[in-house]
Amino acid sequence: MDQLVAIEVGETCQGNGDAEPDRMARIPERLQKRDQERQEELERRKEAKESKQVTEEKSDFFTSTFSKEKADIEELLAGGGEAESGSLAGRLEDISARIQQLQKFLNDSMVFLPQYELRQAQSALQKLQSGLAEKRGELLPKKKFAFRSRNVGANNTNKETPEPRKGGEQVSRPIDLTDASVTASPGNSNDVSAQCGFSNVVSQVLIKRADEINQRDVLLTHLSSCTVKLFGAPSTLHIKHVRDSTILCGPVSSSVFIDHCSGCTFAFPCQQLRTHNTTDSRAYLHVTSRAIVEDCSGVRFAPFTWSYPGLEEDFQVSGLDRERNNWTQVDDFNWLASDAPSPNWSVIPEEERKTTWV
């Protein structure tokens, strides 16, 4: 019996002796694994630090380059206007081209810019665009529009004629400008190429073709109950003080600016959209960077659906990416909450979207 117990105790001790080397052998493995994890963490921190440093260097380069170019453009805008109308128009077009290049520089830098710096740059660009529009109005005489029938012998069929309403009130039928021509009054022929757009019009169909607007700044202002069709690829599009109207435009190379509009429907491709002080409007949009709303309410978005012969060629002229559309990426500068959607804009449900434009 004693011999049997001794044998069992001996086996137990031998078993514990075998386990101890295994445990000791696993200690270096754990240490090696822990050291490896520490090295990987150090490597991640190093990469993060280098990435942050590169981003800061890119941001510093952007800030210095953008500020210098902005100052140069502001200096050009502040220059005097003692020159012939033709040379002034050329100088303003050069300024417009530099603003477009600055806009492209900003779009290419969006991926690494802090949000605050991005907004500051976008605001600066808008001021440059507004300054260019004001300078154009100061230095170049405004074109006086006159509508005349193409068919001189026609019995004034294209003229605006009143229709009776109940109670004796009258309303005018819209004029379709596809049957009318827009001409400058005598003495202002030098500024025809510089002036582009429509203003102070009520209840009309207004049309411009590619040869009139391609790579030019277009201004639509103080329109009411109008339909505007712009076939071509303008440089920029400004829409101000427009209500109850439909604005259709081909690809815009740089930015579209909408301000103080209500009850409107817009459709256009562009590089960037900035919308201010606008209410109860719809935008059928193709935008390659982002859309921005500020001080707006009831603005609704859907993808661009308007089409016309020559649209693909106009996309090529504009330089916009046909396959890239960020129409749902809208920044509301009045809504900073990240955990709730902005109440100032929304997406148009598919069943409510306009797909035919007659």
From TrEMBL:
Source organism, top-level taxon: Eukaryota
Entry's localization field: Cytoplasm
Pfam family, any one: TBCC_N
Keyword Acetylation: yes
Basic and acidic residues compositional bias, start-end: 20-60
Positions of the UniProt region annotated as Disordered: 1-61, 150-173
Keywords: Acetylation, Chaperone, Cytoplasm
SMART domains registered for this protein in UniProt: CARP
Family, as annotated: Belongs to the TBCC family.
Protein name (Swiss-Prot/TrEMBL): Tubulin-specific chaperone C-like
Taxonomic source organism: Huso huso (Beluga)
